[in-house]
Amino acid sequence: MRPKNHDDYQQDALIEFNRDITWRMFTGALIYVACWSCIVIPYNVLLGNIIPWELMWVCFAFLASSGVIRLSFVYDFYVKSKKDPHTNRLRLYVGLLANSATWSGVTAFIVYHPEFESMGHFIMVIFGILYAFISLNLCIDKVQLRIYLISYILPISIAYFAKQGSDNVYIACLLWASTVPVYRIAMMHHREYWSLFHQAYLLKDYSAKLAELARTDDLTGLMNQRSFNQIFEQEIQQAVESRQSYGLLLVDIDHFKMINDSYGHLTGDHCLSQIGLSLNRLIEDNIKVARYGGEEFVILLPNATEEKALALAETVRQNLSASVFRFTEREFTITVSVGVAVIYPQQRTDAQRLFQFADEAMYAAKAAGRNRVVLYQ
Ligand SMILES: Nc1nc2c(ncn2[C@@H]2O[C@H](COP(=O)(O)OP(=O)(O)OP(=O)(O)O)[C@@H](O)[C@H]2O)c(=O)[nH]1
């Protein structure tokens, strides 16, 4: 599986945020109906039904329908954001506007009605508690917070203005004034939320980058020796257990010391990184390649036959020897010696021994004059 990169982690963070906002909106959509059914209705009963039942039901119907509309928008967002995390949040905003304005409208109706005065004070307490709770609940999204504050305060303040009298106008003004500290406190939480959110995301991203660095060889971008050892051990174990063959190619550059001595270490480094790029093409075909160290490379071939391993070794040898390396106006070519070893299910062997076989084959290729492929027999 491809290791995750920066964009993947950013995508993950957005998915996490969408999940969070969906959950907050979901609870928000239920809270008004729950408050009405579990707090306001019982209190009305305690007061001796000062608000007639028919009116209670009408208010309930309004709250429930705006809640259902909002929930359907929340669900729609949830489904769409799963497919595309960048999907816009417009419907969430519309649902929030409808739902909050309905609750505030219902509260305004009770507050405005002189006959429901005793209920009016009580419902304003509930209104205030929800005001604080929902502002903090929505603080993760600035736009929603603003929509909420306006849609929540507007109907109730209109009711107080309409009631007239200096005390009511004063309350209405006070309600608008309260949006400033509420907004500021919510924004403090907003910043805290996002800073923690970004830290968590950056931490994941950095640890993935560190893991990637620990796995890769700097010069060639190939797997390094440590990573190779781990994978090689695991794969050999799997091959033995599932009774499959396994091949290993050991590619060693011939007379690499001469390149360093004649053209300098920088040229040698450049040559190694170019070889890395060449071998990278094998990775595109899902073949694992590693720089074992110095001027030695290894190629892992699960489920390989001798023919397949030899054919690949020959292709690698020919490609590398046909390449012309250029660095600071110098041109040169190289050759490689390749040792090939393949184990079969009946040979119960281990990673170390297979490596040793390939190594012996590679030294045999060197001894036989270099620039050749030798199979361990
Ligand atoms: N530029 C550079 N050289 C390296 C690096 N790692 C190892 N070498 C050089 O690779 C050379 C390996 O030399 P030897 O082991 O003698 O092998 P060789 O010259 O390739 O000769 P044969 O393998 O026998 O064909 C040494 O000169 C090392 O300094 C590296 O990362 N960069």
From TrEMBL:
InterPro entries: Diguanylate_Cyclase (IPR050469), GGDEF_dom (IPR000160), Nucleotide_cyclase (IPR029787), Rev_trsase/Diguanyl_cyclase (IPR043128)
Top enzyme class: transferase
GO molecular function: diguanylate cyclase activity
Keywords on record: Membrane, Nucleotidyltransferase, Transferase, Transmembrane, Transmembrane helix
Classification of source organism: Bacteria, Pseudomonadati, Pseudomonadota, Gammaproteobacteria, Alteromonadales
PROSITE patterns with a match to the protein in the record: GGDEF
Reaction(s) the record says it catalyses: 2 GTP = 3',3'-c-di-GMP + 2 diphosphate
Domain of life: Bacteria
Domain called GGDEF: residue spans: 244-377
Protein name: diguanylate cyclase
Pfam families (UniProt xref): GGDEF
EC nos: 2.7.7.65
